[in-house]
Specification:
This protein is α+β, with helices and mostly antiparallel strands. The chain is built from nine helices and four strands; from the N terminus they run E-H-E-H-E-E-H-H-H-H-H-H-H. A four-stranded mixed sheet has the order 2-1-3-4, covered by helices on one side. The radius of gyration is 18 Å and the shape is globular. The model has no long low-confidence stretch (mean pLDDT 95).
Length: 236
């Protein structure tokens, strides 16, 4: 089966967590909004189409008659269907729990530059963004990364304590990548406090399964999406 992945065509965003799993798992898929002649308008039209279980927002995955929304939900499905998660129910729920924790941090990272309203420009909420970013840098980055560091300290090499990566390792890689982009000064100060997290980031970056994707030019750069680089929001 070839899945249809729908996400905004010009940004990595939350869709990148799903792309990494599809690419590393060698799972056939079509990026529908990035096909020739397609656009964000095509995504909006498809999202509004009549279906039994409509998505609230992208990303969503179409698999035969099923439409699966929410990043963690999509990954839960792919993990079980394609062996990207542990075999046991306990293991799959544990990986999903970790993915949901990553989703919490992703939301907080986004809210550093849009703390009041996502529909308003950053320039209209710069004062509030500066306060939110300071709290994120000083309190939330250490809190979240310390948690993942503690989880990794009790495993062999991967978050699920197995000999092989799961989709949540790919997601933690992308989260750390986003933090390194958006907060390079702060990450330069604190990264050494989380050697297990940074080692996992390096292991995923070197995965043979991902090298064709990384070298293809299809992996979109960070920019106007969740992880944005505003110099005034970063500090050591």
């Amino acid at each position: 089966m070839t899945y249809d992945l729908w996400y905004w065509e010009s940004i990595p965003g939350r869709g990148e967590f799903v792309r990494l799993a599809l690419e590393a798992g060698g799972i056939p898929y079509r990026e529908r909004a990035r096909e020739p002649g397609a656009s964000d308008d095509a995504l909006i039209a498809d999202m509004r189409a009549e279906r039994a279980h409509p998505p609230f927002a992208p990303p969503y995955l179409v698999a035969d008659e099923m439409t699966l929304g929410q990043t963690a939900n999509i990954l839960l499905f792919l993990g079980e269907k394609h062996g990207l998660a542990p075999d046991s129910l306990e293991g799959r729920l544990w990986v999903n729990q970790l993915q949901l924790t990553i989703a919490d941090m992703v939301t907080e990272a986004h809210d550093t530059h849009h703390p009041v309203s996502s529909s308003d420009y950053y320039e209209d909420q710069k004062g509030e963004a500066a306060r939110r970013a300071r709290s994120f840098r000083e309190e939330r980055i250490p809190k979240f990364l310390s948690y993942f560091e503690r989880v990794l300290a009790g495993t062999s090499a991967w978050l699920a304590d197995g000999e092989r990566w799961t989709y949540v390792d790919l997601s933690l890689f992308h989260l750390v990548d986003g933090l390194l982009y958006a907060f390079p000064k702060r990450m330069g100060t604190v990264a050494s406090h989380y050697p297990n997290v940074m080692a996992l980031h390096a292991r995923v970056a070197a995965l043979p399964e991902l090298q064709p994707y990384f070298s293809s030019g299809r992996r979109l750069p960070f920019g106007e999406c969740i992880f944005r680089q505003y110099r005034e929001l970063d500090a050591p």
